[in-house]
């Protein structure tokens, strides 16, 4: 377990200084022990790992660092939760200076094999991602990387001595799609400003700064000592660095270059400095008085009004409508809504809901397509006739039962999909969490497709079997949940399930979602909010986690994913009212992915997932 406690610190070494924009922040340092220190008063301790080159995520919720065995790992700012590995140690490979890139979904660092050159590597900010090299293979060493919110990457470059060692003068520059561009020579240890195009660096033992052209040069320190490891503050007003074995700060404009300050609260701070941003995350509740108004609130949170030219929300291409009284025909609908790029609405079986008709007209132009899920017994003629009368095209996807309806929905997405998620149609949790996962695979610009089909618990219904029999060998079949896995085992399916519905939702999140900026949370004890919520989460590329919404505590599986992904997550979306998912659970959810600051609570905003910052 990790702990936060008061302790003294000792001198260490290393390089790490990535900084991200924030108004509030704290200066920390790591020194090769098992701590990250905040002055002399407190420190974050991981008793199981040494911490070298620690740097903070954009929201300050997680630190990434090099472990004693050469791996890369992260821990929470508070000490809660478990250590999470990012890259396993490799024999003979040294790593240094990991940093969070941009919105926190990727991490970069410098790496060197025994006789190889230093290179810059990158992977997602979660365990198990592929590691790629992003520096050119041109005979030079690329080391001491830094980055910021805009995903710009600056590095130090040196020549090679022929035996895998850096030699000669160093220079700094930036990488852009693997290409190197020089900023200035006789410079080392670059630190990128969180805003603007300024970069600080070490030259002749002093700290300097310039712009990306190498111009507008400013000397930040001019006192008679050697300085190391510069780091910009999140507001770009200060630059911290090592000085005489302690951390000091200088003004960004060089105004105190002759006498850099060591404030009292920094007097015990030693090691490699890194500023921890203290950003306020947000937890968004999308809810109405009932399942109808909740589904419309979810639609309005993301999809634009067609006759408002300045509406920043996304333009819908279709609308999916399902019956409101049972989940039978709706289970595959979340994946369809994401694939067709539109909201999912709920409607009574026997009549059109006038507010639903208004919502369709709000997001779709006349002539736009509305998908009805199920036969006329599910959504009657009045529903279809009224939608057509308003000038919309209706496509009904239906079969003689829920299994055949799910197959028709799957065919409307892709009759030969790359991925088939098969879950029981006799209950809702597994299929709803799978719907968000399948929907995310169908997003525009992705060269993949995914569908959800249904099993009759551990048996394969004729319609589902016929669909699976007609798939090409390239289609991957995954049995989601114990029953889905049992029913599809004859097809060599990949089983994906846990001990219960909450475990299975966690498994889907781990398997099909890379670290991202948003997480969804819905009750696992009822289906309407999770259905419409899954459609949105698939559209904005985030997993749908489940929790027993009226219990005292958030499901531990949901908390675990939120903590592990907290370095990149800035928004948690809770589906349904406080009667469905309590305010206490929403707060626990926000704390799990948030930084040190209090989170913002929002109800039914109109900007969920319309940009990387929402």
UniProtKB/TrEMBL annotation:
Pfam families: CW_binding_2, PD40. The keyword Signal applies. Keywords: Signal. Gene3D superfamilies: 3.40.50.12090, TolB, C-terminal domain (2.120.10.30). Residues 1-18 form the signal peptide. This is WD40-like Beta Propeller Repeat. The lineage of its organism: Bacteria, Bacillati, Actinomycetota, Actinomycetes, Micromonosporales.
